[in-house]
Design brief:
38% of the residues lie in helices and 16% in strands. It is of the alpha/beta class and 381 residues long. The strands form three sheets. A seven-stranded mixed sheet has the order 3-9-8-7-6-4-5, with helices on both faces. The protein is globular. The mean pLDDT is 97.
């Protein structure tokens, strides 16, 4: 199947008992058994282990990312946490230096006393990255594009190294979505999504996902999920699955609007730098052209003045854009990373990677572009 067909039909089946086109919401915690240890359906005993609605979502996720197994979680951070539970004291993890604030917080604060050692590096400095690899390196964790500076990493080049060294390679594909980028096809072992964002697409659900290439790894991660319990409920599973059905249409419009917003900001007298992979001036534009089929709807920018006050004034004046955390919904959102999504990262660390106090991150929605541009124009006036 082609992708646009996969989001609707990939891994999906009509409900066998009723013929329902959409999977029912199986709002049940447990399933009947005919004899002790013999459930009526061998796939379902207790919903923490498996639920038919969640299974339908997981089958769809595996299909659109070209994986063999997918797991749906209660949040993107729960999915990330499940991966980290694979490691022990003495293991080392190399991560991208520009990460979502919640991921950085988990790595440096929740796991700080676990004995796992974390290294943060610019993944485009391949020699520096390779110099950090030791016999204890067990995982490489990459976001591409990154949140909020839209840095990219060459997935194929990194995968060559991780495969040679037999290191697991995980890619956070939240910003790109499988419509624009397929990390498993490029050599990654694990794809992570905050399904709250583009996969759900309507700002009405919190969810996460892992998709893997190797069945054995999928079974290991499923056991860790089952044993720790961070599974996605049936209603939330239904909402994400419903969102996936229109992913291709929405992301196409996000890309169209994102490019026009980036062009507008790039030519505005008050804007200093625009971070958008689709701009030829973007330092990683060539990588974006190589591994993505479009550039997405996420745009960040800074002010010529460099003043936090100008960023705050802009955010207080917007009308069509909504000042709020999160991203990837049909509505346009605006965010101040230093005060909002990335506040958990220490100020010196933010400054080191370029998250300045005048940085604004936009999640460009699917509204009429004329209304979005007019809103930006008046907020920057």
């Amino acid at each position: 199947m082609k992708f646009n067909t996969k989001v609707i039909h990939g891994g999906q089946h009509h409900d066998p008992s009723t013929g329902a086109v959409m999977p029912p919401v199986y709002q049940t915690s447990t399933f009947a058994q005919t004899s002790p240890g013999q459930p009526i359906n061998p796939d379902y005993e207790y919903s923490r282990a498996a639920n038919p609605t969640r299974t339908a979502l997981e089958n769809a996720l595996a299909s659109i990312e070209n994986g063999t197994r997918a797991l749906a979680f209660s949040s993107g951070l729960a999915a990330t946490d499940c991966v980290l539970r694979s490691f022990k004291a003495g293991d080392e993890i190399i991560a991208m230096d520009d990460l979502y604030g919640g991921t950085y917080r988990m790595f440096t604060r929740i796991y700080k006393d676990s004995g796992i050692k974390f290294h943060f590096v610019d993944m485009n400095d391949i020699e520096k990255f390779k110099s950090l690899i030791t016999e204890n390196t067990k995982l490489v964790w990459v976001e591409t594009p990154t949140n909020p500076l839209m840095k990219l990493a060459d997935i194929q080049e990194i995968a060559k190294i991780t495969k040679e060294k037999k290191i697991l390679f995980a890619v956070d594909n939240t910003f790109a979505t499988p419509y624009l980028q397929k990390p498993l096809d490029l050599g990654a072992d694990i794809v992570m999504h905050s399904a709250t964002k583009y996969l759900g697409g309507h700002s009405d659900v919190i969810a996460g996902a892992l998709i893997v290439k190797e069945e054995a790894l999928g079974e290991q991660l499923h056991f860790q999920q089952f044993a720790t319990g961070a599974t996605l409920g049936p209603m939330d599973s239904f909402l994400v699955l419903r969102g996936i059905k229109t992913l291709h249409l929405r992301v196409e419009r996000h890309c169209q609007n994102g490019e026009k917003v980036a062009d507008f900001l790039d030519n505005h007298i008050k804007v200093k730098t625009v971070y958008y992979p689709g701009l030829p001036s973007h330092p990683f534009h060539a990588i974006a052209k190589k591994q993505m089929s479009g550039y997405g709807g996420m745009v960040s920018f800074t002010f010529v003045s460099g003043k936090k006050e100008d960023a705050i004034a802009f955010l207080e004046k917007i009308n069509v854009f909504t000042l709020a955390e999160s991203l990837g919904g049909v509505e346009s959102l605006a965010n101040h990373p230093a005060l909002m999504t990335h506040a958990s990262i220490p100020e010196d660390k933010r400054a080191a990677v370029g998250i300045t106090d005048d940085l604004v991150r936009l999640s460009v929605g699917i509204e009429d572009i004329e209304d979005l541009l007019e809103d930006l124009k008046q907020a920057l006036a």
